[in-house]
Amino acid sequence: MTNASKHIRRRPRPVLALLVIVLSLLPDCNRPQKAVPPDNPRLTPQVTMRNVVFRSAALGRDMPYRVVLPKLVQAGYKLPAVYLLHGSGGDFRDWSNYSDVARYAESGMILVMPEGHSSYYTNAVEPSQDRYEDYVVDDLVRDVETRFPAATGRANRAVVGVSMGGFGAVNLALRHPGLFAFAGGISPALDVPSRPFSIKRPWQWRHYRAIFGPWTGPAQRNHDPFVLARSADPSLAPYLFLSCGEQEGLLSANRQFAALLARRHFRYEFHAVPGGHDWNQWNARLPNVFQSLREHLTGSSAPN
After folding, report:
1. Can you list the domains of the chain with their CATH numbers?
2. Under 8 Å CB-to-CB from 219, ≥6 apart: which residues?
3. pTM here?
4. Residue 280 burial by CB count (10 A; 0-12/13-18/19+): exposed, middle or buried?
Protein backbone atom coordinates (compact mmCIF):
# COMPACT_ATOMS: atom_id res chain seq x y z
CA MET A 1 0.00 0.00 0.00
CA THR A 2 1.38 3.40 -1.00
CA ASN A 3 1.45 6.47 1.20
CA ALA A 4 -1.06 8.09 -1.15
CA SER A 5 -3.55 5.27 -0.68
CA LYS A 6 -3.08 5.43 3.09
CA HIS A 7 -3.80 9.14 3.00
CA ILE A 8 -7.00 8.62 0.99
CA ARG A 9 -8.35 6.01 3.40
CA ARG A 10 -7.95 8.31 6.42
CA ARG A 11 -10.29 10.96 4.97
CA PRO A 12 -13.71 9.45 5.86
CA ARG A 13 -13.30 10.37 9.56
CA PRO A 14 -13.84 14.16 9.11
CA VAL A 15 -16.39 13.44 6.38
CA LEU A 16 -18.38 11.30 8.82
CA ALA A 17 -18.21 14.03 11.45
CA LEU A 18 -19.50 16.54 8.92
CA LEU A 19 -22.32 14.16 7.99
CA VAL A 20 -23.37 13.89 11.63
CA ILE A 21 -23.52 17.68 11.91
CA VAL A 22 -25.53 18.03 8.70
CA LEU A 23 -28.00 15.32 9.73
CA SER A 24 -28.53 16.94 13.12
CA LEU A 25 -29.42 20.21 11.41
CA LEU A 26 -31.89 18.77 8.91
CA PRO A 27 -35.59 19.53 9.41
CA ASP A 28 -37.77 16.82 10.91
CA CYS A 29 -39.33 16.02 7.53
CA ASN A 30 -38.51 12.31 7.86
CA ARG A 31 -39.77 12.04 11.41
CA PRO A 32 -42.95 9.96 11.63
CA GLN A 33 -46.03 12.15 12.01
CA LYS A 34 -49.00 10.91 14.02
CA ALA A 35 -52.59 11.80 13.26
CA VAL A 36 -54.58 13.16 16.18
CA PRO A 37 -56.66 10.22 17.47
CA PRO A 38 -60.32 10.53 18.44
CA ASP A 39 -61.10 11.50 22.01
CA ASN A 40 -62.80 8.55 23.74
CA PRO A 41 -62.26 8.86 27.51
CA ARG A 42 -62.71 5.67 29.52
CA LEU A 43 -64.83 6.92 32.39
CA THR A 44 -66.97 5.22 35.04
CA PRO A 45 -70.45 6.25 36.20
CA GLN A 46 -69.06 7.45 39.54
CA VAL A 47 -66.71 10.10 38.10
CA THR A 48 -66.97 13.28 36.10
CA MET A 49 -64.52 14.85 33.68
CA ARG A 50 -63.70 18.48 32.95
CA ASN A 51 -61.41 20.01 30.35
CA VAL A 52 -59.82 23.29 31.37
CA VAL A 53 -57.90 25.93 29.43
CA PHE A 54 -55.99 28.40 31.56
CA ARG A 55 -53.33 31.05 31.09
CA SER A 56 -49.83 29.90 32.02
CA ALA A 57 -47.65 32.80 33.11
CA ALA A 58 -44.51 30.67 32.72
CA LEU A 59 -45.27 29.81 29.09
CA GLY A 60 -47.06 33.04 28.23
CA ARG A 61 -49.93 31.21 26.54
CA ASP A 62 -53.12 29.27 27.17
CA MET A 63 -52.68 25.61 28.10
CA PRO A 64 -55.23 22.78 28.40
CA TYR A 65 -55.53 20.11 31.03
CA ARG A 66 -58.07 17.41 31.86
CA VAL A 67 -59.43 16.57 35.29
CA VAL A 68 -61.30 13.47 36.45
CA LEU A 69 -62.79 13.58 39.96
CA PRO A 70 -65.60 11.93 41.91
CA LYS A 71 -69.05 12.87 40.67
CA LEU A 72 -70.11 13.68 44.22
CA VAL A 73 -67.77 15.57 46.56
CA GLN A 74 -69.16 16.48 49.94
CA ALA A 75 -69.36 20.23 50.45
CA GLY A 76 -66.24 21.63 52.08
CA TYR A 77 -64.15 18.51 51.53
CA LYS A 78 -60.72 18.64 49.92
CA LEU A 79 -59.21 15.74 47.99
CA PRO A 80 -55.62 14.72 47.21
CA ALA A 81 -54.48 15.41 43.64
CA VAL A 82 -52.52 13.09 41.37
CA TYR A 83 -50.79 14.76 38.41
CA LEU A 84 -50.56 12.34 35.45
CA LEU A 85 -47.91 13.19 32.85
CA HIS A 86 -48.19 11.80 29.31
CA GLY A 87 -45.38 10.55 27.09
CA SER A 88 -43.67 12.09 24.07
CA GLY A 89 -45.89 12.21 21.01
CA GLY A 90 -49.01 12.10 23.19
CA ASP A 91 -51.19 14.74 24.76
CA PHE A 92 -53.27 15.54 27.82
CA ARG A 93 -56.02 13.14 26.73
CA ASP A 94 -53.82 10.02 26.69
CA TRP A 95 -54.30 8.89 30.27
CA SER A 96 -58.09 9.01 30.05
CA ASN A 97 -58.22 7.46 26.56
CA TYR A 98 -55.72 4.61 26.85
CA SER A 99 -55.90 3.55 30.50
CA ASP A 100 -58.46 2.74 33.19
CA VAL A 101 -57.06 5.37 35.53
CA ALA A 102 -60.44 7.14 35.88
CA ARG A 103 -61.70 4.51 38.30
CA TYR A 104 -59.11 5.58 40.86
CA ALA A 105 -60.89 8.91 41.19
CA GLU A 106 -63.87 7.04 42.64
CA SER A 107 -62.08 6.57 45.95
CA GLY A 108 -61.69 10.31 46.50
CA MET A 109 -58.86 11.59 44.31
CA ILE A 110 -58.56 14.35 41.74
CA LEU A 111 -56.69 13.16 38.63
CA VAL A 112 -55.00 16.01 36.74
CA MET A 113 -53.73 15.41 33.20
CA PRO A 114 -51.75 18.40 31.85
CA GLU A 115 -50.55 19.05 28.32
CA GLY A 116 -46.78 18.67 28.15
CA HIS A 117 -46.15 18.49 24.38
CA SER A 118 -42.67 16.96 23.93
CA SER A 119 -41.07 19.11 26.61
CA TYR A 120 -39.90 16.47 29.11
CA TYR A 121 -41.57 18.84 31.59
CA THR A 122 -38.37 20.86 31.71
CA ASN A 123 -37.45 24.52 31.27
CA ALA A 124 -35.82 24.34 27.84
CA VAL A 125 -32.53 25.98 27.01
CA GLU A 126 -33.91 26.70 23.50
CA PRO A 127 -36.39 28.27 23.11
CA SER A 128 -35.98 29.85 26.52
CA GLN A 129 -39.69 30.70 26.72
CA ASP A 130 -40.59 27.00 26.90
CA ARG A 131 -40.56 26.92 30.71
CA TYR A 132 -42.55 23.71 31.16
CA GLU A 133 -41.14 22.92 34.60
CA ASP A 134 -42.32 26.28 35.96
CA TYR A 135 -45.65 25.81 34.19
CA VAL A 136 -46.27 22.54 36.06
CA VAL A 137 -44.92 23.30 39.52
CA ASP A 138 -46.20 26.88 39.73
CA ASP A 139 -49.03 27.64 37.30
CA LEU A 140 -50.73 24.28 37.01
CA VAL A 141 -50.71 23.37 40.71
CA ARG A 142 -52.00 26.82 41.62
CA ASP A 143 -54.81 26.69 39.06
CA VAL A 144 -55.92 23.20 40.12
CA GLU A 145 -55.97 24.10 43.81
CA THR A 146 -57.91 27.28 43.08
CA ARG A 147 -60.44 25.80 40.65
CA PHE A 148 -61.10 22.36 42.18
CA PRO A 149 -61.57 20.94 45.71
CA ALA A 150 -57.90 19.92 45.86
CA ALA A 151 -56.18 19.77 49.21
CA THR A 152 -53.01 21.82 49.44
CA GLY A 153 -49.62 20.79 50.77
CA ARG A 154 -47.06 18.15 49.90
CA ALA A 155 -48.88 15.35 51.74
CA ASN A 156 -51.81 15.70 49.33
CA ARG A 157 -49.93 15.72 46.02
CA ALA A 158 -48.52 12.95 43.83
CA VAL A 159 -47.07 12.90 40.34
CA VAL A 160 -47.02 9.86 38.02
CA GLY A 161 -45.88 9.63 34.41
CA VAL A 162 -45.23 7.22 31.56
CA SER A 163 -42.08 7.32 29.39
CA MET A 164 -41.30 11.05 28.92
CA GLY A 165 -43.83 11.70 31.68
CA GLY A 166 -42.05 9.16 33.89
CA PHE A 167 -38.86 11.14 33.41
CA GLY A 168 -40.81 14.29 34.25
CA ALA A 169 -42.27 12.78 37.41
CA VAL A 170 -38.90 11.65 38.76
CA ASN A 171 -37.08 14.81 37.68
CA LEU A 172 -39.69 17.15 39.20
CA ALA A 173 -39.81 15.11 42.40
CA LEU A 174 -36.04 15.30 42.89
CA ARG A 175 -35.83 18.96 41.94
CA HIS A 176 -38.84 19.98 44.05
CA PRO A 177 -38.89 17.59 47.02
CA GLY A 178 -41.28 19.83 48.96
CA LEU A 179 -43.99 19.67 46.30
CA PHE A 180 -44.94 15.98 46.06
CA ALA A 181 -45.09 13.15 48.61
CA PHE A 182 -45.07 10.43 45.95
CA ALA A 183 -43.60 10.17 42.44
CA GLY A 184 -44.22 7.29 40.06
CA GLY A 185 -42.18 6.61 36.94
CA ILE A 186 -43.69 3.96 34.65
CA SER A 187 -41.13 3.12 31.96
CA PRO A 188 -39.40 6.42 32.71
CA ALA A 189 -36.92 7.65 30.08
CA LEU A 190 -34.33 8.42 32.76
CA ASP A 191 -31.34 8.40 30.42
CA VAL A 192 -32.60 11.07 28.01
CA PRO A 193 -30.38 13.99 29.15
CA SER A 194 -27.24 11.88 28.63
CA ARG A 195 -28.44 9.77 25.70
CA PRO A 196 -25.75 9.68 22.97
CA PHE A 197 -26.23 10.73 19.37
CA SER A 198 -27.88 8.19 17.08
CA ILE A 199 -27.45 8.55 13.32
CA LYS A 200 -30.84 6.84 12.94
CA ARG A 201 -32.59 9.65 14.87
CA PRO A 202 -30.76 12.93 14.30
CA TRP A 203 -33.91 14.93 15.08
CA GLN A 204 -34.02 13.29 18.53
CA TRP A 205 -30.49 14.45 19.34
CA ARG A 206 -31.33 17.98 18.21
CA HIS A 207 -34.50 17.96 20.35
CA TYR A 208 -32.65 16.78 23.46
CA ARG A 209 -29.92 19.37 23.04
CA ALA A 210 -32.52 22.12 22.60
CA ILE A 211 -34.12 21.13 25.91
CA PHE A 212 -31.07 20.16 27.96
CA GLY A 213 -28.42 22.34 26.35
CA PRO A 214 -24.86 21.46 25.31
CA TRP A 215 -23.51 18.01 26.07
CA THR A 216 -22.25 17.88 29.71
CA GLY A 217 -23.38 21.49 30.17
CA PRO A 218 -24.99 22.82 33.38
CA ALA A 219 -28.59 22.43 32.17
CA GLN A 220 -27.99 18.79 31.27
CA ARG A 221 -26.42 18.05 34.66
CA ASN A 222 -29.14 19.91 36.57
CA HIS A 223 -31.87 17.82 34.94
CA ASP A 224 -30.17 14.43 34.89
CA PRO A 225 -31.95 12.13 37.40
CA PHE A 226 -28.72 10.23 38.03
CA VAL A 227 -26.87 13.43 38.94
CA LEU A 228 -29.79 14.64 41.05
CA ALA A 229 -30.06 11.33 42.93
CA ARG A 230 -26.36 11.46 43.80
CA SER A 231 -26.70 14.89 45.41
CA ALA A 232 -30.28 14.90 46.81
CA ASP A 233 -31.04 14.32 50.49
CA PRO A 234 -32.85 10.94 50.54
CA SER A 235 -34.64 11.84 53.77
CA LEU A 236 -36.36 14.77 52.06
CA ALA A 237 -37.19 13.11 48.73
CA PRO A 238 -40.68 11.82 47.90
CA TYR A 239 -41.33 8.10 47.86
CA LEU A 240 -40.33 6.83 44.39
CA PHE A 241 -42.19 4.07 42.53
CA LEU A 242 -40.41 2.78 39.42
CA SER A 243 -41.36 0.08 36.94
CA CYS A 244 -40.15 -0.94 33.50
CA GLY A 245 -41.04 -3.66 31.01
CA GLU A 246 -38.61 -6.50 30.49
CA GLN A 247 -38.83 -6.03 26.71
CA GLU A 248 -37.94 -2.33 26.87
CA GLY A 249 -34.70 -0.69 25.86
CA LEU A 250 -35.07 1.48 28.97
CA LEU A 251 -34.75 -1.45 31.38
CA SER A 252 -30.97 -1.20 31.83
CA ALA A 253 -31.09 2.51 32.70
CA ASN A 254 -33.94 1.90 35.14
CA ARG A 255 -32.08 -0.90 36.87
CA GLN A 256 -29.00 1.29 37.20
CA PHE A 257 -31.09 4.10 38.66
CA ALA A 258 -32.78 1.75 41.14
CA ALA A 259 -29.34 0.50 42.23
CA LEU A 260 -28.27 4.12 42.81
CA LEU A 261 -31.38 4.75 44.91
CA ALA A 262 -30.60 1.66 46.97
CA ARG A 263 -26.99 2.71 47.59
CA ARG A 264 -28.13 6.14 48.76
CA HIS A 265 -30.98 4.76 50.91
CA PHE A 266 -33.90 6.46 49.17
CA ARG A 267 -37.40 5.26 49.96
CA TYR A 268 -38.36 3.54 46.72
CA GLU A 269 -39.52 0.38 44.98
CA PHE A 270 -38.61 -0.92 41.54
CA HIS A 271 -40.38 -3.56 39.46
CA ALA A 272 -39.15 -5.22 36.26
CA VAL A 273 -42.36 -6.52 34.72
CA PRO A 274 -43.48 -8.38 31.59
CA GLY A 275 -44.24 -6.31 28.52
CA GLY A 276 -43.00 -3.56 26.24
CA HIS A 277 -43.20 0.20 25.95
CA ASP A 278 -46.95 0.61 25.45
CA TRP A 279 -50.23 1.38 27.17
CA ASN A 280 -51.10 -2.30 27.62
CA GLN A 281 -48.13 -2.69 29.93
CA TRP A 282 -48.60 0.71 31.58
CA ASN A 283 -52.30 0.18 32.26
CA ALA A 284 -51.49 -3.15 33.92
CA ARG A 285 -49.20 -1.33 36.38
CA LEU A 286 -51.88 1.01 37.72
CA PRO A 287 -53.18 -1.21 40.55
CA ASN A 288 -49.65 -1.44 41.98
CA VAL A 289 -48.99 2.27 41.48
CA PHE A 290 -52.17 3.41 43.22
CA GLN A 291 -51.82 0.90 46.04
CA SER A 292 -48.36 2.30 46.78
CA LEU A 293 -49.59 5.86 46.26
CA ARG A 294 -52.34 5.45 48.86
CA GLU A 295 -49.82 4.06 51.34
CA HIS A 296 -47.48 7.02 50.96
CA LEU A 297 -49.81 9.99 50.62
CA THR A 298 -50.24 11.05 54.22
CA GLY A 299 -53.00 13.56 53.50
CA SER A 300 -56.64 12.53 53.29
CA SER A 301 -60.07 13.77 52.31
CA ALA A 302 -61.18 16.22 54.96
CA PRO A 303 -63.56 19.13 55.38
CA ASN A 304 -62.10 22.56 54.81
Report:
1. 3-303 (3.40.50.1820)
2. 125, 212, 213
3. 0.89
4. exposed
